[in-house]
Design goal:
The protein has helices at about 230-235, 255-260, 260-270, and strands at about 5-10, 25, 45-50, 55-60, 65-75, 90-95, 115-120, 130-140, 145-155, 195-200, 225-230. It is built from 3 helices and 11 strands; from the N terminus they run βββββββββββααα.
Length: about 280
């Protein structure tokens, strides 16, 4: 968890951009993974263009060894074959002594186009200074556009964690049938389990059970349609097998079914293997 010093999602009541040329809008109109017409959280986001420098926010806050700047950014693709120019965007900070953190936009292909990307910038190296401005910077050879949301300055101390604390069952679920990150879903099971429990965002789906963000409701809030007991991890494997694939279900035995039900497993294996 983090202790927010400053936060804006560009919603009503949130801090708004200082530069009058910056416009808040309703978010991107297309994406293979995200809900369209909204921000990443809430229903608003900031639209950016190719201006080299714009003052986004003014604030007065101390920097400690745990201070961090973070934001989510959505570069809009600039053609059928993207040139990734819209990814050359960053937020920088200016301090009271006139210096900056130097977070310049770079063309390093680390941001996905037409998708929300989380960016974290630790500020611990500047501990002892005071924040004065958050600045939006771009560096593009042509016209670009994109969206920005959830600008946050927070205290984020690094605390010791157990390995299990690093497990995220939603990893890879910011995806869809249009853009797969492995057709992952937040499954929960016991060790050596076969059937998995999973939340479902589209109860009518027979292949893509869970879409993080894309299935949010009209207020852009997560909403579940059902919970399911699934064999998706087995039946879905056929999409990634180029040779013969066959799926059989044997009711009754546990994980070591070849020992517990040889009279059922043996004939199936002999029938599947080439004669």
């Amino acid at each position: 968890m983090s202790d927010a010093v400053f936060f804006s999602s560009f919603e009503a009541g949130d801090p708004q951009p200082v530069d009058p040329a910056l416009r808040v809008g309703s978010g991107p109109d297309r994406s293979p993974t995200a809900k369209t017409g909204v921000g990443f959280t809430g229903v608003k986001a900031l639209r950016y263009t190719g201006r080299p420098r714009s003052v986004l926010f003014e604030l007065d806050a101390p920097v400690t060894e745990h201070t961090e700047l973070s934001y989510v950014v959505f570069p809009v693709t600039d053609g059928e074959i993207p040139a990734y120019h819209a990814t050359r965007v960053s937020l920088d900070v200016e301090f009271a002594d006139g210096t900056t953190a130097g977070f310049a936009p770079v063309d390093d292909k680390t941001l996905w186009v037409d998708q929300w990307n989380l960016v974290r910038r630790p500020l611990g190296a500047f501990a002892g200074r005071r924040l004065r401005r958050i600045v939006l910077r771009t560096d593009s050879p042509g016209e670009i556009t994109g969206w920005l949301d959830d600008v946050r300055v927070a205290e984020r101390p690094r605390v010791p964690r157990e390995p299990v604390d690093c497990v995220r069952t939603t990893r890879g679920t910011h995806s869809s049938g249009e853009f797969s990150r492995g057709n992952t879903f937040p499954a929960t099971a016991v060790p050596h389990g076969f059937n998995f429990w999973t939340p479902v965002t589209d109860a009518s789906a027979i292949s893509w059970l869970y879409e993080y963000h894309r299935r949010n409701n009209e207020r852009n809030r997560p909403e579940l349609a059902a919970f399911a007991l699934t064999e998706e991890q087995m039946t879905g494997s056929s999409k990634y097998v180029t040779n013969t694939f066959r799926y059989e279900r044997i009711d009754g035995p546990g994980h070591w079914m070849q020992w517990e039900a040889p009279e059922k497993v043996g004939p199936l294996l002999l029938d599947f293997l080439p004669h």
